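Thread title: Can someone regenerate the structure for this chain?

I was given the following input by a collaborator and told the matching structure tokens would be attached. They weren't. Posting the sequence so someone can regenerate them.
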Amino acid sequence: MLEHTQPTESTPQKSALPQTNPHEEERQRLLAFKAMWKKSDHLAAEQVLKSMKTAHILETQVVLCDYILSPVLTPSLFGIPKTTGYFTRMAGKAVALELISASPRKEIIPLLLRILNHKEPAFAELASKTLMSFGKDIVPELVSQLSVNDHKRVVWTQEGYLRLITLVGKMKDNCATRTLLEAAQGVLITPLNRVIHPLTIISIATYLCLFFAIWEISYLKDINIEDSVFAGLMGTLTLAAPAVSLLAQKSLKKQRNQIQRTAIDALAQVCDKRVLLDLCYMLFWGKNPDRVAHTLFALLPTVNSQDTLLLRSTELRWLTASLSNSYPELPDFHLRVVQALEHLGNEESLPVVERLTTKGASESVRAEAKRILPVLRERASRQEERRNLLRASDVPAQEYNSLLRPAQATHEDSEQLLRPMNGEE
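Best answer:
Regenerated them for you:
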């Protein structure tokens, strides 16, 4: 008798196809990309990059960074490429940088810094975002790149150096405060501080040539036309070269000022209130008071009651002096300063705040001045009490004639002087 068997569910069989290793597949595509790059077949290289899913291997990321940094040798006319090879290669570089930014490794940070210095703004922006993904661990490396004293630094261009300063500010790490402050004050050695413009050397060489021409002509009996033209040309260059050199120095000064403004903006992003003392000096004496005012506008709300001694009397006077200036881009700047005076002000700030209660720039400033006026008066009275308690130490030494003396001299009899009870004569 046949037994009734229930149909059982058939288990799916495993595929007999071999499982491919993702790293091995990445290496194969990397080899194909390098072959296409070597043949200068940029369109095929771009297709290989698009077929790549990941770029986890260090070798892959290094090769892609080298590809991005490689120059584009395409003939051009007035800066416009003649062929589409330029655009094809730039598109391939964009794909390569996106692959790197998906999972960057710390070993390629120096290469990413070079990409940050790239002349293409889109590449530099993506490199900046990739560097930010490492967090604050790379801040010391970025800070060291701000000074030309580091032998491992990148040879920065003006645009790349500005991007580096902005990136350091976005990290919001207090360890970069001092370096950014030095850059803002113009005392940090930047790439522009060590530039000796070629026109300065040309000016010196031209003066030497003119001296040589005059010396030659003075010893010639018959002056021909060539010597006259040579002397006239040297004289013209002698007069023109210093003028051009001055224009070049003016351009360099403008670039330095741009670095200082960018560093001041980066300080606002770091938001470290320890720089308030230096910012007050720069607000009063610096060359970029408008940018300093923006940074102070961001830092003053961070002041609290524990920062009473953060500013000295001199810097506090410079801060209160800014209440006499107007900042159209910051309509609430005076209000921020008055609010900060609640914690930073002293008895010297009292007359300024009293004047603002009636002559403030706005109703909100006048109301705030009236609110903090009792606080400043109480602080001023406490300072006066401390001085009174310590005043005895300031009294000069009294003269000998002012010492106490008896009202009149008396002559006591020696017999009336006190004697011990059991004393013997």
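The longest helix spans residues 225-270.
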